[in-house]
Amino acid sequence: MKIKRKLKYSLLRLFRLKGSPHQIAAGMTIGFLPNWFPTFGLGPVLSVALARLIKANLFAAVFGGLIGTLIWPFLFLLNYKVGSLLLSQRPKIDEIKEVDYIEALNHTVDGFENFRNGGYMFLMGAAVNILVSSIVIYIAVYWIFKRYRVGLLNKVRFNDKRM
C-alpha cells in the first residue's frame, strides 16, 4: 500500500509541475536518454545537464532518468537485440540474466575499435532505440499533459476542498 501511495504522490507532483507540456515532455524524454548507455551512476547528472541545455523541465528530466534507471538491464538487452536485427548477426546476449553492466560498457568501447563485434551491435541498437523511444516518450507525455493535466488537477483540488 505504501508503494502505491508514493507512486500516486510522485505522479501528482509530476502533474503539478510548472511549465508547458512541451517543457515537461522534453524533460522526460531527455532524462530517459542516458539510460540507453552505461553511465555508472552519472545518468541523473547527465539528465539534468541535458535538460538545462535544452531548457526543459529539470524535475521531469530526473523523473525520466529514474524510470530508465529501474529498467536498465532491459534497455541494454534491447540494444543488443535491435542491433543484431539491423546487422543480421546473432546477439551476444540472449536473456536479461546475461546483462552485465561492465560487459556492456566493454562492448560499447570495443565497438569503436572493431565495427563487427558486439560493441557495434550495441551502439547501432542504442541509436535506433534512442530515436524511437524519444519520439514515443515525447508524444505520449505531451499528449497526456495537454489532455489530462487540468482535469486531473481540478479533480484533486475538488477532493481536497471536500475534506
Automatic annotation (TrEMBL):
Pfam family, one: DUF2062
Sequence intervals crossing the membrane: 58-78, 120-145
Keywords: Membrane, Transmembrane, Transmembrane helix
Domain DUF2062: 5-149
Record-given protein name: DUF2062 domain-containing protein
Originating species: Chungangia koreensis
